[in-house]
Amino acid sequence: MVASYPMQYLASFNFKPVEVVVRPSSRQCNAGDYESSPTCGWYYVDGQQIPSSQGFTCQCSTSQIFDATLGGSNERTRANLDCDFWSNPLDILTGRTPCSAHCLDFDPLWYSVLTLSPSVPLALSSSRLVSAKLLGDLATYTQLPAISNMVLLVPRPSGWSPDQILAGDRSQWLLLESSQFSMDGSQCDKVGTSFSAFRYQVDGCARAPQTCLGGQIKDLMAADALRISRGRVPLNLLTRYTYGANSTFRSFNGGPLSFALPVTSQSTSLLLLSVSADAVRLVTNSAPGAITGTLMCTFNSVGNCSHAVRSVEARSVALAGGASLSLAPPLDIYVEDQAADPQRHCWLYLYNSQVGAQQHLQHLQHLVGWQAKQTH
């Protein structure tokens, strides 16, 4: 059994954005919005320059130079710049203070991100003549994974075909909550952190390198690898679900692609099957029959019973043509008093499949047998 979740492609996110620090020998760092050649350069996609991709710059302030020279408070800089005046007095006097450019670079590996939706409770056959609708699932001892509002991450190595991607190692797939993402790249320390979040992070020059770049796909996988090494269940890898490594992509009758996650629990579901009746014929086999004999056993006290004899529930049987049958177990007949009345009686009726009376006998019996003639 599999749990199926329709998918939709959302975007691609990098495996691990990293910070690259540049310390130009010219001690001139540029990162303006209108710079033609910023120190970090520009990032282009399909020939289009990406805003904020030039990173940001840091340089020694006057107070930092004063403190570093006279031994005051040693306020750190992001690139650990040497702000001591005597390290290069000529450059500092001419306004070329030590500086650094902080650039955002991407890992070669990207992940395709697919949103998962609740299962569609309706399916059609390829001929579109039969439909099945899921009315509901009865509660099970082990509930199905609640991943219908989660996001599936699938690695997309460079040069791989779609078939290779879909057949890739499931141990590298992740299932994340949408709250773990920055869809527009404007938030730090989330999957999807991009140029704008990195460039405009608060107090960027006073923070340590690589800050704002935590919580990435690589970080989540490393944290799960540590949990696994300690014998604990991973939090983000698909393999946290039993048989998650055997999950597949499926398309039902040419419909949208769905993520099929195998589940081991047994489930009972209520289904409504509908069939197009345009070319459907209802065939009912009917044949004449006869009661061949009745035998009265012990009178214990099947319509039209006489007074004080309880009605008997009808019995349904199916016979081949020319076959006979002894009704077993016998029909139990009960009376409602202790009187020994020899006039008590019941009518026994034999009906065909179209509820047409074939024969009736007035008798009081415990065992009834009849024979069906040719079926047509």
From TrEMBL:
It comes from the Eukaryota. The keyword Disulfide bond applies. GO terms for biological process: single fertilization. Keywords: Cell membrane, Disulfide bond, Fertilization, Lipid-binding, Membrane, Signal, Transmembrane, Transmembrane helix. One of its GO terms (molecular function) is lipid binding. Residues 113-302 form the Generative cell specific-1/HAP2 domain. It is found in: Cell membrane. It is a single-pass type I membrane protein. One of its GO terms (cellular component) is plasma membrane. InterPro entries: HAP2/GCS1, HAP2/GCS1_dom. It holds the Pfam family HAP2-GCS1. The keyword Signal applies. Its main location: membrane. Belongs to the HAP2/GCS1 family. This is Generative cell specific-1. It comes from Haematococcus lacustris.
